[in-house]
Design a protein that fits this description.
This protein is mainly α. It has one domain. The protein is built from four helices and no strands. Helix 1 crosses helix 3. The longest helix has 23 residues. The radius of gyration is 13 Å and the shape is globular.
Length: 75
């Protein structure tokens, strides 16, 4: 259940990143826009080959940094 929730969260993050205006992307090059979109695409279109270890690694390694960066942008 937790894996499905994390996958869905990553899908939403990637979808939002892909819908972000180019002006905003250029204003915040510190965010991994391309990786967020690529992760979304991999999860959506390659759902049969989703590696739970990779998903867990992204959640543990990348999400905290992303959350930190977004919090500072939104301040």
């Amino acid at each position: 259940m937790r894996l499905l929730a994390i996958v869905r969260l990553l899908e939403i993050i990637g979808e939002a990143a892909g819908a972000t205006w180019e002006q905003c992307r250029q204003a915040h090059p510190e965010l991994p826009w391309g990786k967020m979109v690529a992760t979304h695409n991999r999860l959506i279109h390659g759902y049969r080959d989703v590696d739970p270890g990779v998903v867990a690694s992204i959640a543990q390694t990348n999400l905290p940094d992303l959350i930190y960066a977004l919090e500072h942008i939104l301040e």
